[in-house]
Amino acid sequence: MTLIAPSILSADFGNLQRDVEMINNSAADWFHVDIMDGVFVPNISFGFPVMKAVQKHAKKPMDVHLMIADADKYVKTFKENGAQVLTVHYEACTHLHRTLQSIRAEGMKAGVAVNPHTSISLLENVIHDADLFLVMSVNPGFGGQKFIPNTYLKVRQLRRMLDETGSKALIEVDGGVDLTNFRQLAEAGADVLVAGNAVFGAKDPVQTIAELKS
Ligand code: DX5
Ligand code: ZN
To answer: How far apart are alpha carbons 213 and 123 in whole angstroms?
Structure first.
């Protein structure tokens, strides 16, 4: 069954505890936490104090998506702030293999994210070094953007690569996921779906999560 990871980026930060508890009491599986530094992506989201506040109330794992230039520097601190899955960008890591090893050494699941322009074939040499691969279905930096349909093809390619190599890594899709495309993504082979605007912009977020999960 597909895992659903609502993105905190679209939460109401003035009522963060309320929104975290809404996720706790829903069918959602993970909290998706987007960290943006204004360097790798043209936006700044939030940092450790906000993560700590989420951690304090969250009863589900924190899936942390780093959109930052220098991830290596902060691996340990993300662990201390509650990350259970830590995903870095292929495009932002010069020594990706080493970064993935250091994430696993801290006892976290290691993830690799790829931008819409990045070919799935480039993941070949780290296929056994990651526990999760995140296929970006928008250009990272903002919530509420339009889903890029080429993602279906990339998810199918990645599914094939994982099956062929015997990797048990999960496929996560992030950006513009909603009730119109979630079924097709699951059919293509996605294991985890991130949803920001589709959940927090909905009239009934708990019901929307249940539908995404169905
Ligand atoms: C975009 C972030 C996403 C974003 C998803 O850079 O990585 O996680 O919050 O939000 P929606 O679902 O609104 O596209
Ligand atoms: Zn994200």
So the answer is: 28
